[in-house]
Design brief:
With 461 residues, the chain is of the alpha+beta class. It folds into two domains: 64-188 and 324-453, no CATH class; 218-231 and 238-306, no CATH class. Helices cover 36% and strands 21% of the residues. The chain has twelve helices and 13 strands. Strands 1, 2, 3, 4, 5, 6, 7, 10, 11, 12 and 13 form an eleven-stranded mixed sheet that branches. Helix 1 crosses helix 2 (32-38) and helix 4 (60-74) runs parallel beside helix 9 (370-401). It is globular, with a radius of gyration of 24 Å.
Length: 461
């Protein structure tokens, strides 16, 4: 009910409530059709639910900012050194729709044999916040939006699409979340350690908002950093040096005698690692000072990086291990919530040419008419709205897992699981429990605001 202020009309808010609950309770992932089935609504209501994602009675960004505030006020966000821990990554979703804006040929870096090397689909960028306890931590999705394949539409009239790169948009989204959550640390994989990304983060941190974003990531094995330049001798002519001697970080693993050994928590287990920490300069042209941590773990060598020089090496190692939580978030978002099971398309765009050459224009570039462009922008907006509502549905489930009144043992006993984690339940188990008890709980509270909204949805014309 806290979202009511985000909607200009009660009917639109009613559909929002219905959709969020249906995302939680539905047992199939067939887009808007699943919503009608979940609440046994009349067939014509399908078009009302579909219109919700195109409605002008609400704004996506307003809903998103309210969601940030609700998660922040829950008090469940994980913090280190007083800074909220965010996680970000890209996710590729296969889509076969020929008239879906933003669909493009994508390369799969995953080594999973069940995936094709090349697919056609959408590239999303996701930002989440780590919530829970030290023993049980999850990544709660805050924002997932399309971040590639739409550059042609960025210059259209009334377009809110960013023309920035995938890396820069990820930094921007992390900083926008930090405006609500306060000073934050963003966990990213090595793909996002780039000079444009660092430049963008420096520019945002230098703004007058007062919020600060740091990054913990991983460097490539061939990474080269630089020592700080020696102070210029008095009276020496010329421009001061920006960097000192180059350091090939991979070569430092050859002599591990000066590595320290410590015990850290990685993937929930206490284990022993060797590490060496150094503060070096990195980034051609900017030469930002960062903390590099060379890690040897079970015979594997990794180079971790933090822009936050206040973090201890052990904290950097544990934080980067927590980055994997967003991968688990993607799995649950796809398999349990069905957050990417949308089917929006537009007749204003020509059919996708899967055999298009690089020099040929994309199907977005061929859209010239003003009306057709508005149709396409509406389809893009509807897609991102669908995914955002799914983020809220999944986030509410995760907040239930950590609610003080949640009886973890009773919910665990409600569903057989071969391996049980003490004091923790999964999103799938919570959804299974809600599917079988939610309507009973509503029947026990017939005068609740939620029950009235569902009644109105079933009786509305």
């Amino acid at each position: 009910m806290s979202f009511r202020e985000c909607f200009h009309r009660k009917a639109t808010f009613r559909w929002f409530v219905i959709l969020v609950i249906a995302f939680i309770l539905r047992d199939d992932h067939l887009g808007v059709t699943s919503v009608i089935r979940t609440f046994v609504l009349d067939a014509p209501k399908y078009y009302g639910a579909l219109h919700f994602f195109h409605s002008t009675a609400w704004a996506t960004e307003t809903l998103r900012q309210k969601w940030y505030r609700i998660v922040f006020e829950s008090g469940k966000a994980v913090k280190v050194n007083g800074k909220t821990i965010l996680a970000g990554d890209g996710v590729k979703q296969s889509k076969e729709g020929r008239r879906m804006p933003g669909v493009k040929k994508l390369h799969q870096e995953s080594e999973d044999q069940s995936k094709a090397e090349y697919i056609f689909g959408h590239l999303f960028g996701a930002i989440g916040v780590l919530v829970g306890t030290a023993a049980h931590t999850l990544c709660l999705p805050l924002k997932i939006n399309i971040q590639d394949g739409l550059q042609e539409a960025a210059s259209w009239e009334n377009s809110s699409i960013s023309s920035a790169s995938h890396v820069v948009q990820m930094i921007e989204n992390g900083y926008n979340a930090a405006k609500t959550f306060g000073d934050s640390i963003l966990l990213l994989d090595r793909y996002f350690l780039t000079v444009p990304g660092l430049r963008k983060m420096q520019a945002l941190n230098a703004s007058e908002t007062g919020h600060h974003l740091e990054m913990v990531t991983k460097a490539k094995v061939n990474c080269i950093a630089y020592l700080e330049p020696e102070p210029r001798k008095p009276g020496k002519q010329g421009r001061p040096r920006k960097k000192g001697d180059a350091v090939k970080l991979a070569s430092l693993f050859q002599n591990d005698s000066d590595f320290q050994e410590t015990s850290v928590t990685i993937y929930g287990n206490r284990c022993s690692v060797k590490y060496k920490a150094m503060d070096l300069l990195w980034g051609k042209g900017i030469y930002q000072k960062m903390r590099f941590v060379l890690v040897i773990y079970e015979g594997q060598q990794s180079i971790l990086v933090s822009t936050d020089l206040q973090l201890k090496p052990e904290q950097i190692i544990e934080l980067y291990a927590l980055r994997f939580k967003i991968e688990s978030c993607f799995r649950e978002f796809k398999q349990q919530i069905g957050g990417f099971c949308y089917h929006f398309w537009s007749k204003g765009i020509s059919r996708l040419n899967r055999y298009k050459k690089k020099e040929e224009p994309s199907n977005l570039a061929l859209v010239k008419g003003a009306q057709e462009r508005q149709w396409v922008l509406g389809t893009i907006e509807a897609t991102e709205r669908f995914v955002q509502v799914a983020c809220i549905a999944m986030g509410l489930i995760q907040l239930m897992l950590f609610h003080d009144e949640t009886d973890v043992q009773a919910i665990q006993d409600f569903r057989y699981t071969r391996t049980k984690t003490a004091g923790a339940i999964s999103e799938a188990t919570m959804m299974y429990y809600l599917r079988r008890t939610f309507l009973i709980l509503l029947a026990a509270a017939p005068e609740s605001e939620l029950m009235q909204l569902i009644r109105e949805a079933k009786s509305a014309g």
